[in-house]
TrEMBL record:
Residues forming coiled coils: none
Entry's Gene Ontology molecular function annotations: acetolactate synthase activity; flavin adenine dinucleotide binding; magnesium ion binding; thiamine pyrophosphate binding
Family membership noted in the UniProt record: Belongs to the TPP enzyme family.
Species, as recorded: Phormidesmis priestleyi
Name this polypeptide is given: Acetolactate synthase
Keyword Ribonucleoprotein: no
Pathway of action: Amino-acid biosynthesis; L-valine biosynthesis; L-valine from pyruvate: step 1/4; Amino-acid biosynthesis; L-isoleucine biosynthesis; L-isoleucine from 2-oxobutanoate: step 1/4
Domain Thiamine pyrophosphate enzyme N-terminal TPP-binding: from-to ranges: 18-134
Domain Thiamine pyrophosphate enzyme TPP-binding positions: 411-559
Annotated GO biological process: isoleucine biosynthetic process; L-valine biosynthetic process
A GO CC term attached to the entry: acetolactate synthase complex
EC number(s) recorded for this UniProt protein: 2.2.1.6
Cofactor(s) required for function per UniProt: Mg(2+); thiamine diphosphate
Encoding gene, per UniProt annotation: ilvB
Pfam families: TPP_enzyme_C, TPP_enzyme_M, TPP_enzyme_N
Amino acid sequence: MVSSITLKPSTATQRVSGAYALIDSLVRHGVEHIFGYPGGAILPIYDEVYNAEQKGLLKHFLVRHEQGAAHAADGYARATGKVGVCFATSGPGATNLVTGIATAQMDSIPMVIVTGQVSRAAIGTDAFQETDIHGITLPIVKHSYVVRDPNQMAQIVAEAFYIAKTGRPGPVLIDVPKDVGLEEIDYIPVEPGDVTIPGYAPQTSGDVYQIDAAIALLRAAERPLLYIGGGALAAGAPAELQALAEAFSAPMTTTLMGKGSVNEHHPLAVGMLGMHGTAYANFAVSQCDLLVAIGARFDDRVTGKLDEFASRAKVIHIDIDPAEVGKNRLPEVPIVGDVKVVLEKLLARLSDPAVTPVAPDGQKTQAWRDQIDTWKQDFPLHAPIYADEISPQSVVVELTQQAPNAYYTTDVGQHQMWSAQFLKNGPRQWISSAGLGTMGFGLPAAMGAQTALPDEQVICISGDASFQMNLQELATLAQYNLKVKTVILNNGWQGMVRQWQQSFFGERYSSSNMEVGMPDFELLAKAFGIRGMVVNDPNELAVAIAEMLAHDGPVLMDVRVRRDENCYPMIPPGKSNADMVGLPADKLRPSV
């Protein structure tokens, strides 16, 4: 636990409630939108939300389930880089946030979560709707508080925002007992930046000697590969990444979280690596002689069989979280620091004649780049075309052709992997639950992104099983006329579960068929008062998508896709990245 903040002196006081201090502090920290659901313990806070909305200071979005509030705040944060904020009451309201909090923690998303709590005197008595949400969420937050003294409210809010956004970002919980919200205090505001936290000082700059060691390895490498994760995007380093890649003519691959951190149309881009990554990215990581991990954590969905991951390579690892450096793979050169700051320093030293008098030799990697280009030609991603069925891949391809600059959210499963393979996203335009793999994430996350960016196209790509996890948020889209376009790749299955059951469990399809009880999604949309569409004919797909995108309001499109389509390439469990299934058998693969 971190210690208390230190305030700058202030003599400006006013007599207000603890709830007022909370809302005023949120507004002072730039909060314009809150996603939440009221209840008894949080009513004092909602009374101040009402007053703030009347003054035009912020806007509250009423979700239909608290999990939707957490995912919406998460999507808001991913789309903007700002801190997302959500509210819920005590007991079941607070526990309904847990999956959304864990999702944000796994993907390092900055959020502030405010929960109501029973009055201080009732805590520990098993009062109505009492749960220890502070204790429940300790493993899945960056930090948390129970506000025992309303005089500390402004301090705690300032600290929460600072912690959520700095270092490795993450969610911070503030639990507010009901009587704390009602009690009057002499309120002293705390402005953003007016905090210091003894003992909390994330290392950002990187060690200069380690940076020079990294430059030496990069100069010597003939088969370098930049392996880029979500930390690079959180740091806002797309320009620096491209400059580094071009300086050393080094190919770039991204994780699921790293999508959008590099220009995926760039000739040095090789797409996503890992379980359903491109064949050429996985071959590249198996054959490289230098792996530069940038804001990535060597997670199991990327590495496959860990002891064979980049087994021929030396490793440079750049990350702001010292706990990640060396956790799964010991690097030759560890650099702890903010990705953007470290790369800026590296590039500056590279261009300084006093430090590096000879520019990097781009021809050194020519044979390596030629080999990757050959793999791209031999093992391309494939979107099949069928005469009387719609392939799910073709839906994603059509979307990216008609809406190339949209912000895309996804749920989790086959549709997520097809989207990751075929979409080419700009910075922050890819929003997906990666670490936790949360079904039901896509629709409320799109809601949050659209709230933050009302003039942008926001498209949710979902599956029929995932969509049913949080379909109630269609009501929120309708209430606020959020023009999110949701496309369901409907194959009547829990698609990825079915694929695994087919491949590894003897085609025993236990509890994965979703056909019985599936709603008519077109009628469901109409029941919520929004536009519903259904597409069965591949010849009608392009026109239907154009019609959906042209509609000025939310749309739910049900696309009936080929039922038994599998997502390839795929690395089977326990195999190395080079040992993929679903690739052409007649093409030469690299030796492992």
